[in-house]
């Protein structure tokens, strides 16, 4: 009964989050594309992709493993244990973020032969946001694991893009010319505000304390569990962003901006996918504390909701995608064919994503990483072959084929491991990945 109530309330929360969040994020991208030049808009999307990937990298999977590891501390309301978990991964994230900032700065110097920040790519500016992105991710995961979905999702899905949209409009009204660094600095300030607010929510609800924390037990084993999850997530993000980097290398500058418009339009499917999984992940973490059989009920319940959601959204985007693209400008209609391939590819992967999560949570993350690497290499090779001749449509075709391959291999792995798994296998078998 309590689980049904949580699912109904969570479904309503996430539905609002997905729909309003998509509209607000779309408004942000529209305002940004009309305020900046097409080239600068493309540079922003490349920089944003870089920050997203690095935000996952520096956490070493702390956000991914949180629902599984924190299921018991949250049930016991052990704020000290949760604080120890957050501090452990927070320190790692800060250290790695600083290293990445230095690497980005030095790489820019080698490329440009200049120490001046003004001469560097937007990647350097956005590198300052990486620790905030990482901290926000892990705090959101704690809130999500505690089934506080509104506090976990609304700030990032709705408040962040809405605030950025208002800032862009204000800058356009106040300044004669808006530069890319204006947008990035404003975004960093908003990130800091949201992260601070989420931290206060956790403290107010006695779910987190930084005073007299309980350090994590056996850090090497924890990292052995979290890093494969991080690698799997990293590869997934890299696949979605690889096209932008390869278009930057192999296509015309303005085409990157046009492709970014198509990616933004198709992005509603991954957002819905992540939101549905976020609804069921806390239940999956709790169920795995009991047995795999118990957890399978959660898996198939989530899979059913995910399949229906993705199919409805995919059909809707196929019908309305061209009209949404033209909101960016008439010249963005050149990305219409690319959009169709991106929708199809996103659909292939979205109906597989929860199965991929299941493999990670049941100690089979290495298979997910291998599948991801095969997919990434496939996407890169196809991009190299198709972009020079087919431009942004070739990039989208590459992603579509690569994601179809990923879906096929993931389902094959899931069915294969299920067939060879002994009946009644418990999640407490003693393997590091199953603790």
Overview of this protein structure:
82% of the residues lie in helices and 0% in strands. Helix 5 runs antiparallel to helix 7 (130-145), helix 7 (130-145) packs antiparallel against helix 8 and helix 14 packs across helix 16 (365-420). The longest helix has 56 residues, at 365-420. It is mainly alpha-helical.
Mean pLDDT: 84
Q: What Rg is obtained from the alpha carbons, in whole angstroms?
A: 21 Å
Largest sheet: none
| End-to-end distance | 27 Å
User: Could you tell me the number of beta strands?
Assistant: 0
Return the structural class: mainly alpha
Key structural traits:
16 helices, mainly alpha, single chain, disordered C terminus
SSE diagram, text form:
Layout: H1 2-35, H2 38-57, H3 62-69, H4 71-75, H5 79-112, H6 122-127, H7 130-145, H8 149-174, H9 180-204, H10 219-250, H11 253-266, H12 268-288, H13 292-326, H14 336-350, H15 353-361, H16 365-420
Helix pairs in contact: 1-8, 1-11, 1-12, 2-7, 2-10, 2-11, 3-7, 3-10, 5-7, 7-8, 7-9, 8-9, 10-16, 11-13, 11-14, 12-13, 13-14, 14-16, 15-16
């Amino acid at each position: 009964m309590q689980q049904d109530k949580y699912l109904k309330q969570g479904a309503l929360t996430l539905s609002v989050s997905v729909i309003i969040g998509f509209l607000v994020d779309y408004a942000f991208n529209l305002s940004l594309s009309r305020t900046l030049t097409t080239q600068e808009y493309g540079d922003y999307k490349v920089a944003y992709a870089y920050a997203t990937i690095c935000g996952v990298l520096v956490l070493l999977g702390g956000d991914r493993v949180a629902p599984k590891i924190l299921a018991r501390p949250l049930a016991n309301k052990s704020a000290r244990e949760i604080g120890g978990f957050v501090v452990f991964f927070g320190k790692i994230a800060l250290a790695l973020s600083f290293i990445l900032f230095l690497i980005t700065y030095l790489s820019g110097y080698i490329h440009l032969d200049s120490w001046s920040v003004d001469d560097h790519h937007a990647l350097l500016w956005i590198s300052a946001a990486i620790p905030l992105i990482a901290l926000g991710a892990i705090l959101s995961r704690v809130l999500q694991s505690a089934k506080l979905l509104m506090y976990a999702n609304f700030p990032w899905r709705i408040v962040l893009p809405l605030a950025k949209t208002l800032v862009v409009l204000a800058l356009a009204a106040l300044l004669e010319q808006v530069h890319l660094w204006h947008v990035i600095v404003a975004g960093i300030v908003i990130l800091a505000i949201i992260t601070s607010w989420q931290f206060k929510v956790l403290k107010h609800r006695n779910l987190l304390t930084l005073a007299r924390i309980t350090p994590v037990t056996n850090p090497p084993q924890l990292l052995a569990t979290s890093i494969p999850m991080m690698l799997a997530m990293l590869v997934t993000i890299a696949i979605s962003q690889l096209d932008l980097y390869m278009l930057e290398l192999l296509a015309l500058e303005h085409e990157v901006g046009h492709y970014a418009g198509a990616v933004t339009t198709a992005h509603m499917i991954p957002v819905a996918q992540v939101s549905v999984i976020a609804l069921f992940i806390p239940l999956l973490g709790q169920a795995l504390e009991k047995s795999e059989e118990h957890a399978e009920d959660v898996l198939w319940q989530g899979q059913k909701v995910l399949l229906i959601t993705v199919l409805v959204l995919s059909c809707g985007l196929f019908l309305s995608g061209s009209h949404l693209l033209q909101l960016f400008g008439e010249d963005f209609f050149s990305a219409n064919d690319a959009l169709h391939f991106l929708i199809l590819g996103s659909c292939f992967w979205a109906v597989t994503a929860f199965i991929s999560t299941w493999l990670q949570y049941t100690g089979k993350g290495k298979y997910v990483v291998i599948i991801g690497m095969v997919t990434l290499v496939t996407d890169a090779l196809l991009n190299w072959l198709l972009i020079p001749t087919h431009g942004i449509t070739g990039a989208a075709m590459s992603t579509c084929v690569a994601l179809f391959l990923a879906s096929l291999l993931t389902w094959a792995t899931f069915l294969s491991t299920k067939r060879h798994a002994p009946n009644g296998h418990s999640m407490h078998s003693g393997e590091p990945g199953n603790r």
